[in-house]
């Protein structure tokens, strides 16, 4: 776990004005205000308040990293001295916040400069006119309602409780993403939206400008390593360009190549410059399968809730954001479902750079009302506006398990209309990525059918998985709370979603690390058994507070699972045709004899030829083998394997691997085997 709490990296590499910025993270003064005294006493005015505490920005005031560690505080005030760069004289000085939960108001030198509502999206205030000789006394008031049920808050706890309180964690209130200053002219580049053309041989660029646009204003555009192009603005605040690429290099998880584009605006107000990036990639649905750049895509994903032990919602360092991407990739996952949280853009940057696919979804609210639903919907265009350029994002989510819909969409047309309205709004903003309307529950209007299913009964889990793979009308259950079992289907009754891709959205079982690893092995192989299923999302990558179901602990250390997750998630995996016994024991050998079927799930674009090899224990010199060839994106026919344990062995481990023609290990599995008498079975 990275412990350095300084956050100094430029916070939005996909819209980079870092040549003209100042990071404001670090020690600020702070004052809790549980009784709301500050408004009456005008703490927003310099000298009106005594600042008795210090807080580390950008860490929520509940977190240990903040130095405050104050839970159930609904109101807090921040104080910080700021100074613009002398190089910005004659330009505008802009105060930026990455995210503040929940309602923020700001003053500079006693002058009100702006306010913002919403806990997950960025905002900025022009503070130029409030500065005095480039200096400012910044005071920020943040209100974080204890009752969060009507506002988007994700997995932060509420008072009174949400229906899913037992699945929630410590709140993250106040400033929880980077704060910074930027200098720019009064006429400037407001927004850049980049995407790949449908033919994947050019970049479509949409640029929005703001401020006065006299005739002499010019926009210069330069795709990296190419000639700069000059475009007269001619008073148009919106520009759409096509940037051809003669030898396209596509963005894939195996080759996450990024194209950088620099935009330079020249006007009488001065010069502005922004550098943005994207990747040439296309995600689409063809029939019942997902395709990336025209190639079948199988998702091997994990749930990631974006919490750190000392920082809550905020990573302890910039490096920790990269580290989370790396541990997912090292565990063999090619996708992360970032769970009901709009994550720090730096995390998305590293997903783009390192080649990790992302399912992105907004924070949920807690109790349905038309007002709460409308507030939730306002996030969707802002989510797209902030994150559109990231090639790693291949799926948009909306709701999760009807959180905020009160578990009633199957019978309640008002709730169904809320889901349809959110889907249509998001699709109007961006439908270049498939949309999942209500993950794991009764789908209403969606591009992908997913389901959540948790069960420690492996036979039942196997049967339900097979049934869902073959029949969209299958009923399956959810445990809601301690004593409430809820039955649902993939879709509401009047919707026909038979032609859509199938995806497991959550699963996992076991009460300790060894059990988690065992169920992970066996339940994942059941998902890989069915060609109709396009992937899975394991719950979860790492522990969060009391929720100890991660493959890694909360400090990002791999648990003693008894298996390597990378082999469970490999492109090619074993599928065994018997039902395993229990954690620590996979197979019982009667008289030392083993005979069972093996299939392979090969989710690669190239055919695979090689040798299936198996051996007992450490005696690898006594290997047996058989030649195999596996076609792309194939679940093979069954191969029957027969082998015998040593007569003197009560227990043993059978190792199996698939070697390709270059003797590289492409698949590995093992079976813990016991003689019948050792397993206490007659």
How is this structure best described in words?
It is built from eight helices and 42 strands. A six-stranded antiparallel β-sheet has the order 4-3-5-11-8-9, with no helix packed on it. It has a six-stranded parallel β-sheet with strand order 28-27-26-25-24-33. Helix 2 packs across helix 3, helix 4 (370-387) runs parallel beside helix 5 and helix 6 packs parallel to helix 7. The longest helix is centred in the middle third of the chain and has 18 residues, at 370-387. The relative contact order is 0.09. GO terms for molecular function: hydrolase activity. Residues 24-144 form the Glycosyl hydrolases family 2 sugar binding domain. It comes from Ktedonobacter robiniae. Belongs to the glycosyl hydrolase 2 family.
Secondary structure layout plus pairing:
Elements: E1 15-16, E2 21-23, E3 26-32, H1 37-41, E4 53-57, E5 75-83, E6 92-97, E7 100-101, E8 103-108, E9 111-117, E10 123-126, E11 135-143, E12 174-175, E13 179-184, E14 188-196, E15 202-210, E16 218-223, E17 229-232, E18 238-244, E19 259-267, E20 270-278, E21 283-286, E22 289-292, E23 295-297, E24 299-304, H2 318-330, E25 335-338, H3 345-354, E26 357-360, H4 370-387, E27 393-400, H5 413-429, E28 435-439, E29 449-452, H6 458-470, E30 476-480, E31 484-488, E32 502-506, H7 513-528, E33 535-538, H8 565-568, E34 572-576, E35 587-589, E36 593-602, E37 608-616, E38 624-630, E39 634-635, E40 639-644, E41 651-660, E42 665-675
Parallel strand pairs: 24-25, 24-33, 25-26, 26-27, 27-28, 29-32, 35-42
Antiparallel strand pairs: 1-20, 2-13, 3-4, 3-5, 5-11, 6-10, 6-13, 7-12, 8-9, 8-11, 14-15, 15-18, 16-17, 16-19, 19-20, 21-22, 22-23, 30-31, 34-36, 36-39, 36-40, 37-38, 37-41, 41-42
Helix pairs in contact: 2-3, 4-5, 6-7
